[in-house]
Known about the structure:
The protein is of the alpha/beta class and about 220 residues long. The chain has one domain (about 1-115, about 180-219): P-loop containing nucleotide triphosphate hydrolases (Rossmann fold, 3-Layer(aba) Sandwich). It has nine helices and seven strands. The strands form two sheets. It has a five-stranded parallel sheet with strand order 2-3-1-4-7, sandwiched between helices. Strands 5-6 form a two-stranded antiparallel ribbon. It is globular and about 50 Å long. It starts with a strand and ends with a helix. The model has no long low-confidence stretch (mean pLDDT about 90).
Amino acid sequence: xxxxxxxxxxxxxxxxxxxxxxxxxxxxxxxxxxxxxxxxxxxxxxxxxxxxxxxxxxxxxxxxxxxxxxxxxxxxxxxxxxxxxxxxxxxxxxxxxxxxxxxxxxxxxxxxxxxxxxxxxxxxxxxxxxxxxxxxxxxxxxxxxxxxxxxxxxxxxxxxxxxxxxxxxxxxxxxxxxxxxxxxxxxxxxxxxxxxxxxxxxxxxxxxxxxxxxxxxxx
Length: 219
């Protein structure tokens, strides 16, 4: 089963994708993870990715598609995978469909769309704190650290990232609306989109997602 998580920044895609991964034993694959793995592998493709990233520019769609294809051919995705952050645009989605047609996966089985009102997203991201040491994230309103300002995982002091300031958040949401939101209609037209209210609690959202995935697995 191949599941794509879709939604604006701050909708909770990473959190829910991790929960689904833990329950169903499917690897969660993010764009960043795939790129880092490609570079670490040292292949011709990895060296090309490294040179692009070193130049400080975005990895082009054709190269990204090759990175994704290599990742999906690995043994740990034999029974399925969860993609978080890819595809991001309609062009990438169309290329992804063409790519999948030549693999054991065939096509995307389910798109989990987490929908959250913009004002709620701004509030949520503005309340996010990150650990500069281990990378853990905390929502002060949804999953605050046990001790204020301190990471539960490693004990380092938490910080607010620059890109979580209100103006930067609104700029990121504008980019999402322009580039990624069209995928909602694209996947709805393909009959694989399921919408979930991402403004609900983390637990309630997971229960709703799990019900849909469980039905799909049993089908």
